[in-house]
């Protein structure tokens, strides 16, 4: 029996080349997989985020906060309901103007669940109203998203820098983008900051770098609201509190009730501060609480009497939109609290959007 022939020198060289090419290909493949996984992680993971409560500065006179936007089931359902209501209202507004086959395609699209909608709901957000010299007010806010923060920041930041009107201010290693005539924006790692100017955003970034570990303490005016409501806020001055009351009054009455409006607006007399909270129980039900603080119990009692007419007219107006409202005013010394439960929100949103689009359609035709 003859021994096996050993490969020649050229044969061994070929095998070495084949093995080397295979190893190089495997290495390149591993690197490509690693880069792909990192790319997915970079896009979907927000990275280090700033607690948005740090947007509240020492000169804050009003705060509005959103909590658990990415995990609260009620908020998720309400966002989906608004999305569908907007599409349905648009379909109804275009009825007769869009070809039937296109209408069928749009209805089929409407029936599909937009699974990625939750990615665009902030997990946490805070807006602070800051007192400024000469009686002015400035705003600063912070938003934390669950994902896609870095690619959004990359695209929008690059787009803003390409505008010659955009000025870039570097503060603490972060770029603050200021567009002429618009707000300032900063993509601070996994958080998005915005405000009236670079000074407000720079102060928020300083508070972030100096803050100890853990969640910052909320202002005393917000104590008792966090954890009970999804969206809540407090205003320490009469100006912002009057604006909040004005919004409630404008919802309750219309131009056909000028005398009632005049009486209701007088409820701002003696108003010192206010708080509110909104709990999205489901897409069809909301719980609301508004607390109005007055200078003394007498002012609160007078406000209660002046608001009775507006509050009584609110339920029928809500019913016209297909909703129902349970409203309970409670007088607690110098504080007037309004507890409300709103049902039928889904149909109310749809009716309101449909009417809004129909009105816009009529205006466009008249032009």
Summarize the structure in words.
The chain is an alpha+beta fold and 367 residues long. It has a domain at 51-60 and 123-220. The chain is built from nine helices and twelve strands. The protein has a twelve-stranded antiparallel beta sheet with strand order 4-5-6-7-3-2-1-8-9-10-12-11, sandwiched between helices. A hairpin with a 2-residue loop joins strand 9 and strand 10. The longest helix has 36 residues, at 9-44. The radius of gyration is 29 Å and the shape is globular. The mean pLDDT is 80.
Q: Can you tell me the overall shape?
A: globular
Number of strands: 12
Helix content: 40-55%
Instruction: Give a quick account of the main beta sheet: strands, pairing sense, barrel closure.
Output: 12 strands, antiparallel
Strand content: 15-25%
How far the N terminus sits from the C terminus, by CA atoms, comes to 103 Å
Brief write-up:
The protein has helices at residues 9-44, 73-93, 100-111, 149-161, 198-210, 238-252, 258-265, 297-320, 345-366; strands at residues 60-67, 124-131, 137-144, 166-171, 174-179, 184-188, 191-195, 231-235, 271-282, 285-294, 324-332, 335-343.
Index terms:
about 375 residues, alpha+beta, twelve-stranded antiparallel β-sheet, 9 helices, about 45% helix
Question: How are the secondary structure elements laid out?
Answer:
Elements: H1 9-44, E1 60-67, H2 73-93, H3 100-111, E2 124-131, E3 137-144, H4 149-161, E4 166-171, E5 174-179, E6 184-188, E7 191-195, H5 198-210, E8 231-235, H6 238-252, H7 258-265, E9 271-282, E10 285-294, H8 297-320, E11 324-332, E12 335-343, H9 345-366
Antiparallel strand pairs: 1-2, 1-8, 2-3, 3-7, 4-5, 5-6, 6-7, 8-9, 9-10, 10-12, 11-12
Helix pairs in contact: 2-3, 2-9, 7-8
